[in-house]
Amino acid sequence: MKPKIILDCDPGHDDAVAMMLAGRTTEIIGVTTVSGNAPLALTTENALLMTELLQLDVPVHAGASRPLIVKPSHAEEAHGKTGLDGPKRPAITREVSSNNAVEFIISTIREQDDIWLVPIGPLTNIALAVAQAPDIVDKVAGVSIMGGSTDLGNVTSKGEFNIWADPDAAAIVFDAGFKDLRMAGLNLTHQLGIDDEVISQLDAIGNKTANFIADLFRFYLNAYKQRTKGDVAPLHDPCAVLAITHPDLIQFQKKNVRVETQGIHTRGMTVIDDREYSHESFNCDVGYSIDRDVSLSVIIDAISTYN
Ligand code: RIB
Ligand code: CA
Question: How far apart are CA 67 and CA 73, in angstroms?
């Protein structure tokens, strides 16, 4: 049985690949969008673009246009002005099913068993849903996030974008008491890097989806090289999907994780309690290593199944 998921996202190049992967390895009950890599209007338009390109018959519900407390931040330097720069944008004929992602999340979890939440952008929608309907915490099968880090940040030395962009929302989610909370942080996602060789493999597939994602990767990799001088760009968001569809590819450790919301230099840090003698309860399965080769082959195989 494929896991039933709600994909909460801010497309975003890596969000787009996560949706593609989830489209083949999960049953996507719905896609919800949030302000993050780009403003909400663009992340929502990009989610519609991807569901149409991938021919996924799933509803898209727009969500929070800003974080709970801090001011909105975006990642144009990584994803471009549209949030999905690189490929020629196809015409989008689809429209959002609602502008109330939080209500969709709450009602879906209340009405259906075994729903996974897969947030791969700032956690604003998830935090709002938990605050409005605490009963969903025990009802949901689990939450698999891309966010945080056990070591380095990317926005600041300790802040990873999804957590840093709305630290108050992230603190609500990590403190909510989910029975199965999985974290794919930067320490993990930097092990799943794409390079020119991966792009060549996509070029060899030759279908429309592969060509689109190859153009996404060309932009994303080039932008990453410009910013970091690195020649392998981390593919973050698909790790959160693999954490539930292919958990054997990831080595997890149970940890107590808290989110820093007040720090001047540590805003959005996921504070991992690594003490052997810690009396803090474990609240999260933190990913520490991932099998890059098999993960990439799963992703590329999935791309080859689309038109
Ligand atoms: O820090 C990486 C995360 O921020 C990814 O989810 C990427 O899409 C951006 O949202
Ligand atoms: Ca994202």
Answer: 9
C-alpha torsion angle, residues 50, 31, 235, 274 (rounded to 10): 180
* Interval between CA 277 and ligand 2 midpoint (Å): 34
- Which structural domain, as residue segments, surrounds residue 105? 4-304
Give yes or no for residue 278 having a pLDDT over 90. no
Task: List pLDDT tens digits, range 88-128.
Answer: 999 999 999 999 999 999 999 999 999 999 999 999 999 99
Q: How far is CA 9 from CA 98, 251, 275, in A?
A: 15, 24, 33
Which of the listed residues 7, 9, 10, 13 should we mutate to test ligand 1's pocket, taking the one with most ligand atoms within 8 A of CB? 10
Residues around ligand 2, an ion, CB closer than 5 A = 10, 12, 15, 120-121, 237
Q: Which of 8, 236, 239 to mutate to test the pocket of ligand 1 (most atoms within 8 A of CB)?
A: 236
What's the number of domains the chain is made of? 1
Task: Record the pTM.
Answer: 0.98
146 lines ligand 1 (CB under 6 A): yes
Distance 80 CA to ligand 2 centre (A): 13
How many other β-carbons are positioned within 10 Å of the β-carbon of residue 302?
A: 20
Interval 150-196: pLDDT, tens: 999 999 999 999 999 999 999 999 999 999 999 999 999 999 999 99
Q: What is the CATH number of the domain that holds 155?
A: 3.90.245.10
